[in-house]
């Protein structure tokens, strides 16, 4: 069943999503070539605990870390590693927190140093598609409208591969609730969106094939052709005034502007 949230519950989720956004902003201030995923994970966990919340992913289905860190061909669910990032890496960082009986969830893909223009374009397109999906999340629209908007732009218009096996989700007292929010679909299909619905929208878009597989560690999802994949996520609430974005990537962009070793995808190349 779908749990629709009261405005008070939405505010609790917003607080959690803001903490997630600030944790990702901390990551934005620290990430650069030579840094490891393990280091970022430790800093993120300390930051979340210092704010009186708990990491939302650690222990969830036995996931071992606070952040999912998924570089390059890794799509999502990467385990923070000891390997140092290098110039040219793109790194998806996904973060969740749990506080006041609710979760918060958001993700961002960082680009380190010199990246190719085709990878830059992939990041910009995936981030843009997130907002194309969010725009559709209005009372009376259908869940398929969101996926359609993301797929139409990234796959039909730009020729990228939209991952089918992993999708967005409802969020509240559980990290993953009904409904499923695919990044592909047909207009006018699926459940009707009602006030109080809280969902995480998270396009995962591949430079090449849409096909993915699970890596040896049993967690990390990787592209079959080993080409790069990008991932951006917001948690949003459906309200009578339109979609209300509960997470806030502007904290991340503010830190990116101060970190000369990563690429600002908000500035045209
Ligand atoms: Mg997430
Ligand atoms: Mg999510």
Describe the protein.
This protein has a five-stranded antiparallel β-sheet. Strands 1, 2, 4 and 5 form a four-stranded antiparallel β-sheet that branches. It has one domain (7-258): Creatine Amidinohydrolase, CATH 3.90.230. The longest helix is centred in the N-terminal third of the chain and has 24 residues, at 7-30. It has five helices and 15 strands. A hairpin with a 6-residue loop joins strand 11 and strand 12 (221-223). The model has no long low-confidence stretch (mean pLDDT 98). Helices cover 30% and strands 25% of the residues. Residues 105, 169, 200, 202, 233 line the site of one magnesium ion (MG).
Question: Short description, anyone?
Answer:
This protein has 269 residues and is of the alpha+beta class. It has a single domain (7-258), classed as Creatinase/methionine aminopeptidase superfamily (Creatine Amidinohydrolase, Alpha-Beta Complex). Helices cover 30% and strands 25% of the residues.
List the helices and strands and how they pair.
Layout: H1 7-30, H2 37-50, E1 54-55, E2 67-71, E3 74-76, E4 90-99, E5 102-111, H3 117-135, H4 143-157, E6 161-162, E7 168-170, E8 177-181, E9 198-201, E10 204-206, E11 212-214, E12 221-223, E13 229-231, E14 234-239, E15 242-245, H5 250-258
Antiparallel strand pairs: 1-4, 2-4, 3-12, 4-5, 6-10, 7-8, 7-9, 9-14, 10-13, 11-12, 14-15
One magnesium ion is lined by residues 105, 169, 200, 202, 233.
